[in-house]
Amino acid sequence: MQPVRIGIIGVGNISGIYLKNLKEFRSTEIVAVADIDADRARFVAEKHGIPQAMAPKALLASADVEFVLNLTIPNAHGPIAIAAAQAGKHVYNEKPLCISMEDAKTLLDTAKSKGVLVGSAPDTFLGGGIQTCRALIDSGAIGEPVAANAFMMGRGHESWHPSPEFYYQLGGGPMFDMGPYYLTALVNLIGPVKRVAASARISFPTRTITSQPKAGTVIQVETPTHLCGAIDFVNGAIGQVTMSFDVYSSPLPNIVIYGSEGTLVVPDPNGFGGQPMLKQAKDTEFHAVELTHGYTEGERGIGVVDMCYAIRNGGAHRASGDLAYHVLEVMHAFAKSSDSDKHVHLESQVERPEAMRADSYADERVA
Question: Residue 46, CB half-sphere, CA atoms under 13 Å: how many?
Fold first, then answer.
């Protein structure tokens, strides 16, 4: 098939892995890059042999670009993506889809009216680790899923990140930073969420940066940094999720799925590979499960490839705007539930994405 002509807006650190990986597939061609820093856009274009470097507005108007890969900061995800859809271009955002539900709804409505597709990271759930777990669950290896635990617990970013302020502002925090990985994996493995009951707090009202170059700067914390809640899935399973920037360490696994016939330890959803561990009713201990699916390394961008295949061939793509919208609503529900002292019932629903084949898109790789 003819490659989909991609323009990237935002060529900061995260762009490097996309620039590398998308060159490895016949279905994707990067034809332009844009950034608010024009010199940086030109540098990246020259380094990677990309024909055009331009301003973001020029890229959105370019007839050469049919697909916008939006790698801007989260606060710009909504405005840039909406503008891309209004221009009649397919768009794929880095996570989260948007900060506000209002922007996310406008984006999906605009895309539908223009006949274009929306996608969003994370696409780690398409990797070999999570997809092997998906295949185990679908084959009945643990019977009917009845419960799940998910834990992401650490101390935050101020000790190592060069500019960590955003992580403590609205749209940041552990839920919006890491929640997309965990919640997307859970929806892929178990299904959509029906309601959420949660508690959330700001444990420390200020944070002091100890990393360079901003060591000594005091951050005012504006968003919850420790959240814990129960999520009820549509299929009846009950999950417990804890996300924290307030603790130093935890011995707990990333994700565990408990079924009627066994228990499955799921690898870190922030990666593509990892080691699933399984204990069925007949077993006396957990044992490692060999990965059955590909994309086990730094495969960021496979969601873009999957979306481009859908653009050219029809059908649904997996890292979809609808999936990201549902996950965004779940993330907002944690603080909303805590603030209101009530269960929050989800308005959006989505089907579990289609499982990947073991050899999905292997024939699309450049020889």
Answer: 6
Q: Which of 261, 256, 99 is nearest to 182 (CA)?
A: 256
Q: Is 18 helix (H, G, I), strand (E, B) or coil?
A: helix
SS3 for 192? coil
Sorted by where each begins, the domain ranges of the chain are 4-120, 125-288
| CATH fold for the domain made of 4-120 | Rossmann fold (3.40.50)
DSSP state at residue 66:
S
pLDDT (tens digit, 9 = 90+) per residue, 318-327?
999 999 999 9
CATH topology of domain 125-288: Dihydrodipicolinate Reductase; domain 2 (3.30.360)
pLDDT in tens, 87-133: 999 999 999 999 999 999 999 999 999 999 999 999 999 999 999 99
DSSP 8-class letter at 145: E
Put simply, whether the predicted model's pTM sits higher than 0.90 gets the answer yes
51-60's contacts with Cβ under 8 Å and 24+ in sequence apart are 56/9, 56/80, 58/34, 59/7, 59/9, 59/32, 59/33, 59/34, 60/9, 60/84, 60/87, 60/89
